Amino acid sequence: MSALLEVSGVSKSFDGFKAIDNLSFSIGEVELRAVIGPNGAGKTTFMDLVTGKTRPDSGTIRYGSLSRSLTGMSEARIAQAGIGRKFQKPTVFEDQTVVENLVMALKSPRNPFSVLIRRPPQRDRAATLAEQIGLDDALDRRAGELSHGQKQWLEIGMLLAQEPRVLLVDEPAAGMTTAEREKTTQMLVDAARTRAVVVIEHDMDFVRRLNCRVTVLHEGCVLAEGPLDHVCADPRVIDVYLGRDDDA
Amino acid sequence: MILRKPSVLIFLSALALVTIVTTLMAQAGLVSTSFVKLLGKTLCLAIAALAMDLVWGFTGILSLGHFAFFGIGGYAIGMWLMWDRTENIVMPSLTGGPLPPTPFQIEEAIGTQIFGVVGSSDVPWLWSLAGSLPLQLAAAVLVPGLIALIFGWLAFRSRVTGVYLSILTQAGTLALSLWLFQNDSGLRGNNGLSGLQNIPGLRDVAQSVVSLWFLWASAIALALAYLIAAWTVSGRFGSVLRGIRDDEARVRFLGYEVEHYKLAVFTGTAMVTGLAGALYYPQAGIVNPAEIAPIASIYLAVWVAIGGRGRLYGAVIGAAVVSLASSWFTGGGAPAINLGFYVIKWTDWWLVLLGFSFVLVTLFAPKGLGGLVDLWTGRRARGIGPLGPDQGSLRGKEEVA
Q: Which residues cross the membrane (chain B) (predicted)?
């Protein structure tokens, strides 16, 4: 299986603090991957680097069958190229309706001119998506009125609407009820049938439920990688992460 | 599509009603020419306020320089008005001689007339197109557009946002007005351009009639501007603009180049504002550097805030109410209040009153006067309300499920 996204030898430091230290990571075309690690392991910085929010000091990030370099591309261009990102806290446009949120995310031309002039009806496409994320009875409600879990799903729906090839999801289960978690797990597993999905998560139970390969980050580099049970048995992982009594 | 929106229909009907009633009353001699002009000018200011609402209320860019574009539009049209009228004045005396005047003689005669006040008779290069109405009209739109494009490109590309961008726009506006104040700017220094109410070719038409023509032109321009603005903020484009206002990083990760959108809105509104200025100053009669001073752009923001930003009719209401009230208070319309020990003269105290209203609106009615419409229609306010993760109304239902 060839890699869809390949991060090799990337380093990034902020004011002397090495957030990412010679990190290498790759994910295939169709794969679900969980990234775990203690606080400060560089999980969010890793996402920022891939999505163009921050630029690496060294190393390369290549993407797609042509191995395009992502370093130096703007956030918008990277998103257009097919990398979607879900933030830790639900970031939907609270002032706008569910349909408006979804339509904005739908894969379609993004330049101001064509968005202003060409206005194809997209409500049906948005409604289909809303059904997938269980929001079909809330189409014209403003996103701000939705519950926490519904906002998370709306955001996942917006990501799916972008039809990305790589989905980066930051702590999707945070603050969710048990029922909501199960639904979220199912959404992510479904999404990973046709694309690469990287889930960053603190919650071990949630990761176990995803039933996928796990990458453990520690101090900005990969500590271990493999099936969850294999990783959990690794003495170094136990030492830095599992053995500690933190929120994992 | 846009015409089916109730707010657009109500607005257009109200505008038509005001224009028609004023016209009828003016013809019956019930309202003065100066009132007609005041109303026409107010409609032009409302166009500028609409543009400001698009930039600030919808896209979240607090530009404190948009009124400069209005002034530039006024200067552009004023140059043609002065040039053509002066040409009509100097031609009879020049053609009295045995030979027809050369173009050089004509230009010198016009130059002496126009630039005598700043001690010069040379025609500055800025005026090289002043003889052509179509070109000066084009300049009224394109010069603001070009300035906004260059300024916006530099500022947005460097991701200057928020208060820093506001300060930059103020600085730019200040620089422009200081330059215009100079006698050698080529635009008559602090004298500005005057006599603009005399439209060349319409010398035999009474001002009472010309004022009505301008009222109608302003009303039609406002109607068109409103339709275009309503169309712009509808659909996905409007969603993206409001998205940029609320969370621009998120919009970037959706694949939209935020800077391009900001630049498009900043430039487009600058052009519309320039055109509004070109309609305003022939009714005002004079444009001078004080019109471009930073305070004017701040007023523009105040109108939009008082009217209610993020809703188009709010901008129009704000501009109309504040500028009409300002004329009433400062024009001697409001009676002075005698407190016995002190007499409140509104010409002095109007600004204090305006300042207080701004503070009160900001504190107690953040939705502005336009928010009153919500009380009437029962519509829930956009973006303001008991929202948030813990107050979502479906929360309870979810926990049960």
A: 38-57, 64-83, 135-156, 163-181, 213-233, 260-280, 286-305, 312-329, 349-373
